């Protein structure tokens, strides 16, 4: 299989972390790709018409895309159990969706500063994206710490990658302030070998 990825993409990192945790690294060839909605550059458009990464090219079928689809596929292939049985499954998927929403909002903030001409930028819109992140982090702190303390699952993997992306792109926002439980969890999770091996540069 071929995985199209970018070193700094939190979505690609999620796939890479799951693959490492599941022991599937040797099954994939990594192919760097980059681009944006304004310039697709060398994104795998033939494999993924949306022009997004990660994209996984399989030997026995069409390419898979969207990190949630690829992670589910790899977990099924490895039988790693990162998608637990219900009812815990619904909590795991909700945390994954929350983490992906954090990544979405954080990436849109980056796009606003990098892709939109300065006279057209909307600071209020950027702050609106951060408020989404802020609410999500408060919810994780107040509602989900007990789940995060449990067995490794897709929710934890996605959240670790989302928090790592905040550290990479929005460190000035100091997301740990007032969230000691989440900060403590992140300190441990970000130290996992799979997270260290995929740490953005």
UniProtKB/TrEMBL annotation:
Superkingdom of origin organism: Bacteria
InterPro entries associated with the record: Glutathione-S-Trfase_C_sf, Glutathione_S-Trfase_N, Thioredoxin-like_sf
Gene3D superfamilies on file: 1.20.1050.10, Glutaredoxin
GST N-terminal domain location: 1-82
Name recorded for this polypeptide: Glutathione S-transferase
Taxonomic source organism: Plastorhodobacter daqingensis
């Amino acid at each position: 299989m071929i995985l199209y990825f970018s070193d700094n993409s939190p979505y690609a990192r999620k796939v890479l972390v799951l693959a490492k945790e599941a022991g599937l690294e040797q099954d994939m060839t990594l192919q760097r790709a980059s681009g944006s909605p304004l310039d697709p550059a060398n994104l795998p458009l033939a494999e993924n018409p949306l022009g997004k990464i990660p994209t996984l090219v399989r030997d026995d079928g069409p390419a898979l895309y969207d990190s949630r689809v690829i992670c589910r596929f790899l977990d099924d292939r490895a039988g790693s159990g990162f998608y637990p049985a219900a009812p815990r499954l619904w909590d795991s998927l909700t945390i994954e969706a929350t983490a992906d929403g954090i990544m979405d909002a954080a990436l849109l903030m980056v796009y606003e500063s990098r892709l939109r001409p300065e006279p057209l930028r909307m600071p209020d819109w950027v702050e609106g994206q951060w408020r989404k992140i802020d609410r999500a982090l408060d919810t994780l702190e107040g509602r989900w710490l007990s789940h995060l303390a449990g067995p490794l699952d897709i929710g934890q993997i996605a959240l670790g990658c989302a928090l790592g992306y905040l550290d990479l792109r929005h460190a000035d926002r100091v997301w740990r302030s007032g969230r000691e439980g989440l900060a403590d969890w992140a300190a441990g999770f970000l130290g996992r070998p799979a997270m260290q091996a995929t740490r953005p540069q």
